[in-house]
Amino acid sequence: MALTAQQLADLMPDVTQIESNEPEIESSLHYAQLALLVACLEWLWRDRNDFFIGAN
User: Staple partner for 34: which of 17, 19, 22, 55, CB 3.0–4.6 Å?
Assistant: First the structure.
C-alpha cells in the first residue's frame, strides 16, 4: 500500500522540538576537519555506491 504525501508527513516527528547541544562550527579549522573526514570516507568507500555522507 502506497502512502500519500500527507500520510507520510503525518508520520514524521515534530522536528521543531529537537534541540542540539553541539557547538556550531566556529572556525576554518572545524570546517577543514569535516572536509577531511568526508574526503577520507569517500576515498575509503570509493568502490561503493550505497552510502551518503552529511557533515554538520
Answer: 55
